[in-house]
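User: Teach me something about this protein's shape.
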Amino acid sequence: MLGLPAGTGGIAVACARHLRPRPVGRLPALLARPDDDRPEGQEASQVQYRYAAQDAQKFTKHGIDLTVYGQENPSATVVHVHVERGHFQEFYNVRSAYIYYIVSGRGVFHLNSEAIAVGATDLIVVPPNTRVYYFGTMEMVLTVAPAFVEQDERHVRFVEDSECRID
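Assistant: First, the predicted structure itself:
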């Protein structure tokens, strides 16, 4: 296990070249203990640590089933995505990155017209302003950071079922 360099007050990442810890700064507020930077007057009981599926918003959009957790958190939106065939809308987001972790299944992501085959345990990072749509049968966890704001998403086109190829 790697230790922290003395006096850094931050976390460390192993540098592959030298196999030494490298300080990367202080913990972001999202990861800090709630009593470190709690706004004045906010009690620990006001901090929400757990988000349950039964409290999440659930809906279907362009061929995918979505369960959206903790929408009031401005740092990120976390979504469970279930897709049987494909996401039949090409879109992009002008502000947020979309990070897909493939829990199970396989498919093909189309990012700016480049086809990328994916399978279980793969991670796909879609930077802002990158066009995206995908096909396949997959269970995924999607993190949108910063949090999803509807007016930041731009529709490009609806994707035809005949384009659905998972070679």
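Now, about its shape. The chain has two domains: 9-47, 53-163. Residues 9-47 form one domain. If you'd like, I can walk through any region in more detail.
User: That's plenty for now, thanks!
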